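hey
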């Protein structure tokens, strides 16, 4: 799309000559004979840059600049004047003008200034989008060296239109990394299509990937486009590619080499333009050595590889992730936002997290379901951890270990868990209510109230 430039000047001749010159350079121009009219035009349609005279009747260029920055602070504005003074130039800069040029305007200088303004605006906009993207991407949160390195690699890899292989344990966010690569690439406005190779029966993988014609096999009652066709122009994410059967590996290799697919039961070849991102939790080098994964396919999908670190390798990011998951769950379920206490965050950080980020997210959501506390205490966290984790005697003794019962009302489930946690804490402190309350992050009176509500006889828990 051609950049749209708003030209503001009370001289009709200047408007006409600049419009012609900019049009010859490939710009679309919008003109206004006054600052008031220019503000009206800005309400009607957005522009990419503004070129305005300073000396105009009714409203001068400086006042116009101030109004523009109130409404559209990111739009670059270049001011020009035949009566330029140092004081005017300083005021223009203070108000947010990108540049100030003197009339008569040299066309080459003006075009260079405009190109620089548009380039700077694009870079600033991309930087804001990039910062917002990383701030919102839940699995890529973290200030550790490992996560900073991963984000940097994603940013470098995204614009290069080459196949990428993502390696990492289950639950480390491989799909989110694939989405990040797609969203930061030139294909961002095209489809992102995914397929889990391990979740599709071997006999159906070819149909899923390449599609099929009507009547190609029993049950093929209509023509169906496969994942490659669905992703045409965009990105295809093949998760768990290490589980793909050998015959299918050969067919995938041919498609990646030729850029053409044939539907099952079809005769003609269909060209597709797809960037393939693959992921696996297997050691593909080992599978190649064992003859279970084609070496030529391995090199075809592995132009560039990224590794998602296990959560235990960057445990310092656990508190930030937990806080993010808690806030995200509250927004998604329309719950009241609640905080995790520093001790609760420390306990989460101590866990091994064999299931990585996915397990952490599940535990945080489980805590929010099972506890009404605000802030969330270490005891609340222990009650939600798997059996044997976090020293949850209550969870281990009950055999539940933080797993959610398949049946029962939510209130009953929550009460049962709270009752077990409070009893365990009272026993641990020899029935000392004040110490038990302090360890739970509660006021002494609040603990007494909880015990009455839950039918706990404090005298029996010493």
């Amino acid at each position: 799309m051609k950049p749209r430039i708003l030209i503001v000047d009370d001289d009709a001749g200047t408007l006409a000559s600049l419009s012609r010159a900019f049009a010859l350079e490939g710009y679309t121009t919008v003109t206004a004979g006054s600052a008031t009219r220019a503000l009206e035009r800005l309400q009607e349609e957005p522009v990419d840059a503004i070129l305005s005279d300073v000396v105009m009747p009714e409203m001068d260029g400086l006042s116009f600049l101030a109004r523009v920055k109130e409404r559209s602070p990111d739009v670059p504005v270049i001011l020009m004047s035949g009566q330029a003074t140092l004081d005017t130039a300083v005021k223009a800069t203070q108000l947010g003008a990108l540049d100030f040029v003197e009339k008569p305007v040299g066309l080459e200088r003006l075009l260079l200034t405009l190109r620089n303004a548009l380039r700077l605006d694009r870079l600033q906009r991309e930087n804001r989008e990039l910062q917002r993207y990383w701030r919102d991407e839940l699995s890529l949160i973290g200030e550790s060296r490992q996560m900073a390195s991963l984000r940097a690699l994603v940013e470098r890899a995204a614009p290069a239109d080459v196949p990428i292989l993502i390696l990492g344990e289950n639950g480390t966010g491989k799909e989110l990394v694939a989405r990040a690569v797609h969203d930061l690439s030139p294909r961002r406005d095209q489809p992102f299509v995914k397929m889990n190779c391990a979740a599709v029966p071997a006999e159906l993988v070819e149909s899923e990937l390449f599609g099929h014609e009507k009547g190609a096999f029993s049950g093929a009652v209509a023509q169906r486009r496969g994942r490659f066709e669905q992703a045409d122009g965009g990105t295809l994410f093949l998760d768990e590619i290490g589980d793909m059967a050998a015959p299918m590996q050969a067919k995938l290799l041919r498609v990646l080499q030729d850029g053409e697919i044939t539907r099952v039961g079809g005769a003609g070849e269909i060209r597709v333009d797809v960037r393939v991102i693959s992921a696996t939790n297997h050691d593909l080098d080992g599978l190649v050595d064992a003859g279970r994964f084609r070496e030529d396919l391995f090199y075809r999908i592995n132009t560039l590889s990224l590794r998602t670190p296990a959560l235990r390798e960057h445990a310092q990011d656990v508190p930030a992730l937990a806080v993010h998951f808690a806030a995200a769950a509250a927004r998604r379920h329309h719950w009241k936002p609640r905080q995790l206490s520093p001790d609760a965050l420390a306990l989460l950080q101590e866990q091994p997290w064999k299931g990585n980020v996915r397990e952490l997210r599940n535990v945080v959501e489980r805590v929010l379901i099972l506890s009404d506390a605000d802030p969330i205490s270490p005891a609340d966290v222990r009650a939600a951890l798997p059996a044997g984790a976090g020293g949850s005697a209550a969870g281990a003794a009950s055999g539940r270990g933080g797993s959610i019962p398949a049946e029962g009302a939510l209130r009953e489930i929550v009460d049962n868990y709270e009752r077990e946690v409070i009893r365990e804490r009272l026993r641990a402190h020899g029935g000392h209510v004040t110490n038990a309350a302090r360890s739970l992050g509660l006021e002494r009176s609040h603990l007494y109230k909880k015990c009455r509500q839950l039918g706990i006889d404090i005298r029996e828990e010493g």
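Residues 391-402 have pLDDT under 50 and may be disordered. The chain has three domains: 4-127, 156-309, 312-461.
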